[in-house]
Amino acid sequence: MSIESLAETAQALVAPGKGIIAIDESTATIGKRFAAVGIENTEAHRRRYRELLLTTPRLSDHISGAILFEETLRQSTEDGIPFPKYMASHGLIPGIKVDRGTSPLAGCPGERVTEGLDGLRDRLKAYYGLGARFAKWRAVITIGEDIPSGTCIEVNAHALARYAALCQEQGLVAIVEPEVLMDGDHDIQVCYEVTEAMLRSLFGALHDQGVLLEGTLLKASMVVPGQDCEERADIEEVAESTVMCLKSTVPAILPGIVFLSGGQSDADATARLDAMNRLGNLPWPLSFSYGRAMQQAALAHWAKDPVGNFAKAQAIVLERAKENGLAALGKWKG
Ligand code: 13P
Fold first, then answer.
1. Residue 1 has pLDDT above 80, yes or no
2. Which position among 25, 179, 219, 323 bears the catalytic label?
């Protein structure tokens, strides 16, 4: 696989006005989302719900690709078209979450490390064969008393780099996602410092392991105060802090940065992305790879009447895609 085709895919994922929809919830995580709206977590329901999202008419006007969970990569539309094939013929690049979730990090109480490197080369080969052209690996950094430790940051950065090198070897663009969680009562400055340390370590590890940045995308969390912090930050402060943190840590050659929503409201996720793009003078496209902030309104509506509300739920997905696509250009009207 040539670097040119990896770079081409990475650039297409962050094409102007387009972002990624993350629908890669594990079976346990989608179970939580379904439970919140009264949907039973069965394979049939998961398939139908993902079909709703992926077959939204005109989705590719604002969405470049979707990150799938492995189960979805192997499922098909009602008409029997495998999802990756359906996506490719409708202008959506198929992606796949390849990490196996997190486990407690031995020796570091309260911290986690992402698993899934064993056997990853063979899995990536199979995912490529099924049509995936990019992949995602999520590391989780928790802020708390005396954490994150340097060890936690380093081992997660090292695993992200090993994953990314394997992806590129197998022809897949690597999305590296070091998520700094919003849980806690820390202020925005602490979030800034932790995010900065994580990104420095990550780009060091990517460099050490020979990962081609041209074929890599960063999936970043925004720099925000912890959910329980009394001192809130306005949209401009979040936008400015996030952009400053990224500018001081992320090489300009990276094709783009996409944000996760991480539990922000739909309105915050869109307004903050828009504000960052309005700052201008950015070395990379800043776009989105939202899960909840793309889906939650549509899921709630669909759950009320899965048959009768199918089309309306798709219209809600399209509206969220359009708003976030405008925010990726700094042209959202609020
Ligand atoms: P949220 O936007 O819901 O945080 O999900 C994005 C994601 O892919 C987390 O790994």
1. no
2. 219
